[in-house]
């Protein structure tokens, strides 16, 4: 089971920053997870919420601000280009979540594909583009079917969406997997791999190992490695 750092080693560092991903490397993570949004001038940046209020104290919306305005409000912000270059340099896999719904619609998938194609050495690391949007995953297939995808599921997601998805992986939340461990077997029977988020509790980490999770997404990579007794 591989261990991917959720927004970097975000239990110890500001999420989605270079410091968080450097921390993830130090903690032995096999890969990184990130959230991606588009600025007004179509720069893909690592950011979770639509607004900058919670992290930067700025009420502006990422989609309504230029990259210059966003970086002025939060100098630590990473572009997708910078993130991918760092991952390639450190030989770490990446899970890239596109956020929806957004003002720009499915334009974010187009920009992500453009960024991936432009990243030197990207073929040397594992990549998966993720989304809770079924339509975003299908858009990725049309844009470039060679790029692996992960259909993310929350408690209200319908099973038929996973069953009909073109995604190579399914990503249920740990709460749902804990309540219904048989989900892991059902996903495997679809011929898809299993990426589970966000797993920090020791009992949940052991559950993921038991049911055959492929990628465990955690805020604390070093803790997960310790629980699993990885060297």
Can you tell me about this structure?
- InterPro entries: GP_PDE_dom, PLC-like_Pdiesterase_TIM-brl.
- GO terms for molecular function: phosphoric diester hydrolase activity.
- Residues 1-228 form the GP-PDE domain.
- There is one protein chain.
- The protein has 11 helices and 9 strands.
- It has a single domain (2-48, 78-228), classed as Alpha-Beta Barrel (TIM Barrel), CATH 3.20.20.
- The chain is an alpha/beta fold and 231 residues long.
- It has an 8-stranded parallel barrel, surrounded by 6 helices.
- Helix content is 39%, strand content 19%.
Number of domains: 1
Give me the CATH architecture, please.
Alpha-Beta Barrel
In total, how many beta strands? 9
Please give the count of helices: 11
Going by helix content, strand content and strand pairing, the class is: alpha/beta
Strand arrangement in the largest pleated sheet: 1-2-4-5-6-7-8-9
Main pleated sheet? 8 strands, parallel, barrel
Strand content: 15-25%
Q: What is the rounded distance between the termini?
A: 13 Å
CATH superfamily: Phosphatidylinositol (PI) phosphodiesterase
**Mind telling me the C-alpha Rg?**
17 Å
CATH class: Alpha Beta
InterPro entries: GP_PDE_dom, PLC-like_Pdiesterase_TIM-brl
Protein name: Glycerophosphoryl diester phosphodiesterase
Pfam family, one: GDPD
GO molecular function: phosphoric diester hydrolase activity
């Amino acid at each position: 089971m591989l261990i991917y750092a959720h927004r970097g080693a975000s239990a110890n560092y500001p999420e989605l920053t270079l410091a968080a991903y450097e921390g993830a490397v130090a903690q032995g993570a096999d890969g990184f997870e990130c959230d991606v949004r588009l600025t007004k001038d179509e720069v893909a940046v690592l950011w979770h919420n639509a607004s900058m209020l919670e992290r930067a104290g700025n009420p502006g919306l990422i989609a309504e601000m230029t990259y210059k305005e966003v970086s002025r409000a939060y100098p630590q912000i990473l572009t997708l280009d910078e993130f991918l270059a760092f991952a390639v340099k450190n030989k770490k896999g990446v899970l890239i979540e596109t956020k929806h719904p957004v003002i720009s619609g499915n334009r974010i998938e187009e920009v992500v594909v453009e960024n991936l194609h432009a990243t030197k050495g990207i073929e040397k690391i594992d990549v998966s583009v993720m989304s809770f949007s079924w339509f975003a995953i299908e858009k990725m297939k049309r844009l470039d079917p060679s790029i692996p995808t992960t259909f993310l599921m929350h408690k209200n997601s319908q099973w038929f969406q996973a069953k009909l998805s073109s995604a190579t992986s399914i990503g249920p939340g740990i709460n749902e997997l804990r309540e219904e461990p048989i989900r892991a077997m059902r996903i495997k029977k679809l011929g898809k791999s299993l990426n589970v988020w966000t797993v920090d509790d020791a009992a949940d980490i052991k559950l993921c190992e038991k049911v055959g999770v492929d990628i465990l997404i955690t805020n604390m990579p070093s803790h997960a490695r310790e629980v699993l007794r990885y060297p």
